[in-house]
Specification:
Layout: H1 3-7, H2 11-22, H3 25-41, H4 52-73, H5 90-105, H6 108-118, H7 124-131, H8 135-170
Helix pairs in contact: 2-3, 2-4, 3-4, 4-7, 5-8, 6-7, 6-8, 7-8
């Protein structure tokens, strides 16, 4: 199977990852398209016999990071990201906002591993290869990121509970 024909089998996974990174369907589609264009243009750098998927995810991830850096230099605020789409109940939307807000507070080195594993489509080894870091480094970043995420989310929940208790006591 040629590289170009094998690309089709990974488009859906790339799109899901891009959607998590960008939280915007149009931006995600653009990111995937740019990734595929780069992959085809650099097909000669792909090492036959290795797994194509981590190579593609690394290209997508690096492209996204480059896009973020470009946006910062243009002084475009990253806060302009659209609100996540969740039509269920208000409580679920609030929890999702809290987790996404907490995820945004993490450094990229911790956020990347969490996002890759949260998709549940990559093993730790694949995710480490796609981020181009050793497995031990990946596991360490993932553990630190999960712990930081837990602390941030619990801190937000604790703060809201204290605020509600103050309101009830003052009424």
């Amino acid at each position: 199977m040629s590289l170009k024909s094998e690309l089709h089998t990974h488009v859906a996974s790339l799109r899901r990852y891009a959607l998590v990174l960008t939280r915007d369907t149009v931006a995600a589609d653009d990111l995937v398209q740019e990734t595929l264009v780069k992959a085809i243009a650099k097909a000669d750098t792909f090492q036959p016999g290795t797994d194509l998927r981590p190579w593609l995810f690394r290209i997508l991830h690096n492209t996204h990071i480059s896009d973020l850096r470009r946006a910062k230099t243009r002084a475009d605020a990253a806060a302009d990201l659209p609100e996540p789409i969740a039509r269920e109940c208000q409580h679920t939307q609030l929890e999702l906002k809290q987790v996404l807000g907490a995820l945004d507070q993490l450094p990229e080195a911790q956020r990347g591993p969490i996002i890759l594993i949260a998709l549940r489509e990559m093993s730790y080894a694949e995710a480490a290869r796609s981020l181009d870091v050793p497995l031990g480094t990946f596991m360490s970043r993932l553990a630190r990121g999960r712990e930081a995420l837990r602390r941030i989310v619990q801190g937000v929940a604790t703060g809201k509970l204290k605020l509600m208790q103050r309101k009830e006591g003052g009424a």
